[in-house]
Design brief:
29% helix, single chain, Transcription Regulator spoIIAA, globular, six-stranded mixed sheet, alpha/beta
Amino acid sequence: MAKTPPLVKFVDGSCHIVLGADFSHLYEHDLDDLRIVLLLAESVDPPKLIVDMSQVKFIGSAVIGMFVTASKTLAKRGGTVSLLNPNQLCQTAISLSKLNSLLPMLKRDEAGALIPL
């Protein structure tokens, strides 16, 4: 069964990629479906991506690696990739990998502003 592609929207000067329920567990076999992240890293202007992980329960190392590649691509253009609302398991995987500086994690405060986790 085909997955529903990630929703891409532009909000407040950044490109948001919303990973829906079809992406609740991110494994290596999901990389093709997530290719939009790499394509946007090369072209989005301004070079700022926010990946909404509100519905993601697990992230595998291959997908973390793809996010790192996107982050490095955007950094060359003066931009960033941030992960919005990662759950505790995803936060731990990224922290244990020592990738917090390449993949900053965010949440929204009560007013809707993005703040670091």
